[in-house]
Amino acid sequence: MTKEHWLKLGCTGAVVAAVLAASGLSNLRGAKAQSNGDSRIEIGLRAAPVPLNMKGRNPAQVGLGSYLVNVAGDCNGCHSAGPQSEYARGGNPFFGQPTQTNPATYLGGGRDFGALIPGSAHIISRNLTPDSSGLPEGGNSFDEFVQIMRTGVDPDQMHPTCTGAPDANCIPAPFDGSLLQVMPWPNFKDLSDHDLRAIYEYLKAVPCVQGNYPGEAANRCG
Ligand code: HEC
User: Fold this and answer.
1) What is the tens place of the pLDDT at every residue in 43-78?
2) Which atom of ligand 1 lies nearest, measured to the CA of 154?
């Protein structure tokens, strides 16, 4: 290749770089600069959007749990009260604002996914924060939590299968009313024991919120 060729290629490269920069496509370089590292525990501890109660807890478990809840699992996307209040004022990433989760609705449940057919029970996400007992989801033990995540069986039986005409308290067959609907347990059931323990420990460490689930005891946070 002659000197002229190299010069030409070099110029083309510069032009391409300039065009990329102008169009914002040079973000490839930005992505590298913003590397998060490889430690899910550290990323998780940074990603927790609320102050955590770490007393007597294993930071490695809580950090991994936070990673699974906040980064990978998006539990709060469903277990907050809905898109209007999921983010703090001025903190909605979908408005182009820097993300700021609303602590008042964080994992507090009450997002209404509507009815499976008109007139049947609404599917509403539950409050996952610890109540005054200190256990998550209104007092579930670790064994109960594992059972929920692995089988989808609803321990509270909030919406049995309708036996007659659908009403606001039941869900119609072929939906099985004993199973949680919408909740992605068919995916979560394959999480490792280690990961489920980490999620549970993280849920114990988040602050209690009253949440938005209808009929919740008014003093659930004690
Ligand atoms: C796509 C939405 C969605 C996502 C994502 C989601 N959930 Fe759920 N979850 C729900 C809904 C809705 C219910 C209640 C379903 C019902 O009433 O049939 C529920 C119920 C639950 C329950 C049962 C609570 C109880 O008191 O019985 C637990 C536990 C739970 N979710 C944990 C989680 C965790 C942990 C994550 C993240 C790893 C998660 N969920 C992510 C929608 C979701």
Assistant:
1) 999 999 999 999 999 999 999 999 999 999 999 999
2) 27
